[in-house]
């Protein structure tokens, strides 16, 4: 009996190594049924010839801003996941700073319903924790979020963090759920002081935005949240970690058996803060892109198998040209907004690093597919090539040389990016989600809105979440 799909003539890459070049995978009902040499695969109703390109378990971006609900003029589920499909990304996790913010079960339901209606690839998202809902973590958990986020530093939406007492109590409840709490880890008092100081002094060039948020703002927040996590035994995550000195603190905490993970972004590994003088507010993001010393330290933590960086994401943050000040990218930085898109450049950037010998292809797959799936409770359904799991594949040409000459060719609703004009070696050529081809470089985006599905992390057989009936209150919650 024939299966639904066979992908053949490929080299399969996993964190454990490569199989190929004449390898392939068989898929039935959206699940992997066998992996092996082409000649050993069953007959299929459909055959995709990878034409010698490589195949990895679907790449996961666990940090995007799709802007739904309420800010769809910047981006929405459809345009964000269209960009994901075109970029070779099969799963995305959305951030909660929308309008309204994702801070209650009814808001979670709204975001999920819009995703089920409009997404082209699979998805999940986070709930935000603030002073208004710090004692309602279990209700957020039961609504099915992938995890939680606290904004410690001023960011888009100006969502204030809970105070330290509220945060500690919230983290105690997060520990009871077994899920993970991530942080925008910047000390708001330091960065606000420096931003006010620079503005009063008339220091308005783009580089001053970077200098108003020095690495100490990250290091302090990382240290404080690790201290709290150790107290209540909570799993925590550092979003968009930009500085190597901060990653070293994460590494040291891991050595003390604290369950802390961290992600970094291609732009922190690719550029230095000099990009602010070269491209201005186009590259304005927070945390900012760091100097060469911090970037070198960051690379050390990325390349160490036991280092402070676990995974790669983008902080894909679309804004309009007007919000970014594209009529004058070197204008007053305090009048421009932070963030830029990244879903279609993350795989090319990381493959360029592989081509340059900065990391192995296996390590890239580990950090961009397997590890994020493990961190956020999606593994092995996502991020693996195991039989019986979702047939999500990123097919790529590791040797393709190309330049992003025109950002307007990207699929996001807004397309400002400092990667415009940059040259890459490596490109996604096909994207397959649950056995369906959603992107082909020759045919464009083939996926349909509504095909993407919300991932039910609570039903996946792993140790990510704790069923409500098995939860025990932590000591802090008992009133210690």
Question: Could you give a quick summary of the protein structure above?
Answer:
The protein is α/β, with parallel strands linked by helices and 480 residues long. It is built from 14 helices and 17 strands. Helix 8 runs parallel beside helix 11.
Top CATH class of the largest domain: Alpha Beta
CATH architecture of the largest domain: Alpha-Beta Barrel
CATH T-level topology of the largest domain: TIM Barrel
Into how many domains do the coordinates divide?
A: 2
Instruction: Report the CATH superfamily of the largest domain.
Output: Metal-dependent hydrolases
The number of helical elements comes to 14
Largest sheet data? 9 strands, mixed
CA-to-CA gap between the ends?
Answer: 62 Å
Approximate strand percentage: 15-25%
Oligomer: single chain
According to DSSP, the number of beta strands is: 17
Helical residue percent band:
25-40%
Description:
- By secondary structure, this protein is of the alpha/beta class.
- The chain has two domains: 3-55 and 389-397 and 425-445, Urease, subunit C, domain 1 (Roll); 58-380, Metal-dependent hydrolases (TIM Barrel, Alpha-Beta Barrel), CATH 3.20.20.
- It is built from 14 helices and 17 strands.
- Strands 1, 2, 3, 4, 5, 14, 15, 16 and 17 form a nine-stranded mixed sheet that branches. An eight-stranded parallel sheet has the order 6-7-8-9-10-11-12-13.
- A hairpin with a 2-residue loop joins strand 15 and strand 16 (436-440).
- Helix 7 packs parallel to helix 8 (244-255).
- Mean pLDDT is 95; it is low at 474-480.
